[in-house]
Amino acid sequence: MNLFFLILTGVFMITAFWVALLKIIAHLSGWNTLKHTYETTYTHNEINYFGVSGKIGGFYYNSILNVSLSEAGVYLSVRPLFRFGHPFLLIPWSAIKNIREKDKTLFCEVDGIQIGLSNKIHNIFKSYLSAYS
Question: Could you list the residue ranges that cross the membrane (predicted)?
Answer without folding.
Answer: 6-26
